[in-house]
Design brief:
The complex is a heterotrimer of chains A (442), B (135) and C (221). Chain A has 442 residues and is an alpha/beta fold. In chain A, 28% of the residues lie in helices and 25% in strands. In chain A, the strands form eight sheets. Chain A has a five-stranded parallel β-sheet, with helices on one face. Chain A has eleven helices and 24 strands. Chain B has four helices and four strands. In chain B, helix 1 (16-26) packs across helix 4 (110-125). The two termini of chain B are 14 Å apart. Chain C is of the alpha/beta class. The two termini of chain C are 28 Å apart. Classes of the chains: A alpha/beta (442), B alpha/beta (135), C alpha/beta (221).
Chain lengths: 442, 135, 221
């Protein structure tokens, strides 16, 4: 009755050799650091960046949303090191067109100004960064509401104007910051607000008010920043669930905030009204628009917000659902430069451990497809959480069939269970044995 | 040897099987439960569920990892859907859907494991005996 | 491909009737791909029926062939078919009738309802795409078939029930085929095709026209 054919398995484990060359996507600080770390570990890298130069990203990165340090000089040093390193091949104006293959042998086609080329890599690190979305609240005085980046630009212009003796634009008298909690990027937004507040105090000498939920000082520099801000006269208000309301005054904006330090009793319910010429709100951090395309090319998953790497406790910080593909930095939602540096190093070590052996044994118990029974329905290809299934020409049958790529298979058995033709077997078929054991239950 | 109201518990080796181990060490596994360890709850096939019932089990349960904790990312969701499919088939032949179930569990939840099985056993006792042997 | 679905099991159980032993036959082609009657489903059905008829002790064996519409693939089942009181075919309507033709003395029953020719939109969702009308007009409609995908099989543009690209018959599930056609032709810069009026369709080449055959003299042995 049982028409399952037994697939002969090799009794000796097979070995596959891995390419040691690593592909790094993205020329921001994440990509640069990963490439430098990899090179120092002895892995040749190719860094691919669609932009004309590596400057373009730095501007977005070195906005005030980073912590107290100033990274501009640091970036220049690292960039110089990158270009000097003979082990790193930097390809500008280049984008990835297609990615085939698996860990140890990713076959990548790239396009540079219309010219395509192909190369093989052992592993891929995605460090394509994030984007900032201004997300300014709607008011009838839009010229009075700006983002952190915009504030930074204005202060920069003001300082340049001072140096060259030109008169700047009108300086605001009262500046209000609103920083609401938003999850992972809260600390960055707070730091950015603190830096902005200090800058406004120092250069414009305006009155500065900061309305925040939590200052969120997980780091020393933040504590320092906060202390500096307080002592220089920045006024802080803390709100809880109720967000500050923004309304229109005669000529200026009015921010009404309920300060949580006010006691519950008494007439004063903690409502403070701040009249301000300028309201500054932080940008939202969002995945870059090309992330969706990249996901399809690489067959990797994202989380609910669209940042790469789904939320799963088994995935180490840089890991993806596919062996050999890693994520660093902004593209996976890491926004703090210090975090990104740590990630870059960690991922470089992971990659190095992966590709340093000349040969790697195939895992035991992986799934194998009986090509003669395969109906090419593509269910296994679609269902495999590790993207370990391809369609390939099968020499035994002479036709095409699904093929489980051994080195990418994690032996979960999902494809076995999904196959409508019962064409896939795991390992020695122990699983089927377990099922038939049950027949003896009676 | 199947005792009355026997249950076959397919246990994911990363969660269910470990919980079973904890339960075994603490209070023991009741006689009516057979543990089958699987690499992922998503690897249990519909036919495995039906064959277990066919072999005389009164009920079948799959234990998988909690959401966001499946080592194979989507295996627990596949298992949940497959159990729902099997329950639908049972309903079509006039059997109770409650004979099959899916539960997420963590490796340390030995007591939860035991409690869930006890609950299922109790539930099976109260079902009409038309479908299963050993009653 | 052909898209089919298993019949409700209660209906299949009625077909079994008084028979004590039956053979369930799956097909390795279309019905495997749409998860209705492949080897996996054949085993599931056989096991389920044995559960359902447990008290009566009925036996349900199962097997699966490469393609149920070919005599050569079906012929090897002869001994098993003879040893059973009847056959439950999990092939499409063509497979059922092939079994019936090759084993005319046996009672052959359909375990599936054969629906349409279609394609998977995503895993688990199959949509009707081709109506087999016999006079293909896809060259005029940007590769989108209004016979199969327009609720009214209109030939010359949408009706008033087309709203926001959805069909009023079932806006949640049905896109307006003519909206799709328009968008496609626009993308091809071929909107002048929309201006060509198609005459009333000659349905004689479709199922409405009667029993159809295709004959190729050059390949007849």
């Amino acid at each position: 009755m049982d028409v399952r054919k037994t697939v002969a398995l090799l009794s000796n484990p097979e070995h596959v050799s891995l390419s040691k060359r690593v592909l790094v996507l993205g020329g921001g600080i994440g990509g640069i650091e990963t490439a430098l770390n990899l090179a120092s570990l002895g892995c040749a890298c190719t860094l691919v960046e669609p932009g004309e130069s590596l400057e373009a990203r730095a501007e977005a990165m070195f906005s005030s949303h980073n912590a107290a340090k100033d990274y501009a000089g640091f970036f220049s040093t690292r960039k110089a090191a990158l270009f000097r390193d003979f082990r790193i091949n930097v390809l500008l104006k280049t984008r990835v067109v297609s990615v085939a293959g698996h860990i140890g042998d990713f076959r990548v086609r790239t396009d540079c100004a219309g010219k395509t080329s192909a190369q093989g890599f052992g592993a891929i690190v995605v460090a394509t960064g994030f984007e900032l979305d201004a997300a300014l609240p709607d008011t009838e005085m839009p010229h009075r509401v700006i983002s952190h980046l915009e504030l930074e630009k204005r202060i920069r212009n003001f300082r340049q104007g001072m140096r060259s003796g030109r008169a700047g634009s009108v300086i605001p008298k009262d500046v209000c910051f609103i920083v609401a909690d938003s999850g992972d990027d809260s600390a960055i937004r707070s730091a950015s607000a603190l830096k902005g507040a200090l800058a406004v105090q120092k250069f414009w000498q305006s009155n500065v008010f900061v309305c925040c939920q939590n200052v969120g000082a997980p780091r020393e520099e933040m504590e320092k920043l906060y202390g500096e801000a307080r002592s220089s006269g920045v006024v802080f208000f803390k709100f809880d669930e109720e967000r500050p309301a923004i309304s229109i005054g005669d000529t200026v904006l009015e921010v009404t905030v309920r300060d949580s330090s006010a006691g519950p009793d008494g007439e004063w319910k903690g409502l403070i009204k701040i009249a301000c010429d300028l309201l500054v709100v932080p940008e939202r951090f969002v995945p870059r628009p090309d992330t969706a395309c990249l996901r399809r090319l690489l067959r990797v998953n994202a989380d609910a917000s669209g940042f790469l790497q789904e939320n799963n406790v088994w995935l180490k910080p840089g890991a993806s659902n596919r062996k050999g593909i890693f994520f660093v930095g902004g593209c996976r939602g890491s926004l703090d430069v210090d975090d990104i540096l740590v990630e870059a190093r960690a991922v470089a070590l992971e990659v190095y451990n992966l590709v340093r052996s000349d040969e790697v044994p195939l895992p035991i118990g992986i799934a194998t497809v009986d090509a003669a029974k395969c109906a090419l329905c593509l269910t296994c290809l679609r269902s495999c959480p590790h993207a370990a299934v391809e369609v390939d020409h099968n020499p035994e049958t002479g036709g095409k069939a699904a093929l489980v790529v051994g080195i990418a298979c994690e032996a979960c058995g999902i494809c076995v269970a999904e196959c409508p033709a019962n064409a896939i077997q795991m390992g020695e078929g122990e699983h089927q044995q377990a099922a038939t054991e049950l027949v003896r239950l009676r | 040897m199947a005792s009355e109201f026997s249950i076959v518990a397919f246990c994911c080796e990363h969660s269910g099987a470990l919980a079973a181990g904890t339960a075994f060490a603490d209070a023991g596994i009741p006689d009516n439960v057979k543990i089958v360890s699987v690499p992922c709850s998503g690897s249990v096939q519909t036919i495995d569920i039906l064959k277990a019932l066919h072999s005389g089990a009164a009920g079948v349960v799959i234990f998988g990892c909690h959401d966001g904790a499946c080592k194979h990312l989507s295996g627990n969701q596949r298992a949940k859907k497959r159990v729902a499919y099997a329950a639908g088939i049972l309903e079509e032949i006039g059997w109770e859907r409650e004979r099959v179930g899916f539960s997420t569990i963590a490796s340390v939840e030995g007591k939860v494991f035991s409690d869930l099985l006890a609950q299922m056993t109790h539930g099976l006792r109260s079902l009409a005996p038309e479908g299963s042997e050993g009653v | 491909m052909i898209v089919a679905e298993r019949k409700p099991i209660a209906e299949i159980m009625e077909m079994v009737g008084p028979r004590k032993k039956m053979l369930v036959v799956g097909c390795g082609a279309c019905v495997t791909v749409c998860m209705a009657g492949g080897e996996r489903e054949a085993e599931i059905l056989a096991t389920t029926l044995e559960l359902a008829f447990r008290n009566e002790g009925k036996q349900f064996l199962w097997d699966c062939v490469e393609r149920q519409c070919e005599t050569e693939f079906v012929e090897p089942l002869r001994d098993k078919v003879r040893a059973s009181a009847g056959v439950l075919s999990m092939g499409c309507g063509v497979g059922v009738q092939t079994l019936a033709a090759v084993f005319p003395e046996s009672a052959v029953f359909p375990a599936l309802n054969t629906h349409f020719m279609g394609r998977p939109v995503e895993q688990g969702l199959w949509a009707e795409t081709c109506a087999g009308c016999g006079t293909c007009i896809l060259s005029k409609t940007g590769g989108i078939c209004p016979i199969a995908r327009c609720s009214k099989s209109l030939l010359n543009g949408p009706c008033g029930g087309s709203v926001n690209g959805r069909c009023e018959v079932d806006p949640e599930h049905i896109e307006c085929a003519w909206q799709l056609i328009y968008d496609r032709l626009e993308a091809w810069d071929a909107l002048d095709l929309m201006d060509e009026i198609m005459p009333p369709k000659d349905w004689s080449t479709s199922a409405h026209g009667g029993v159809r055959r295709v004959f190729r003299e050059d390949v007849v042995l």
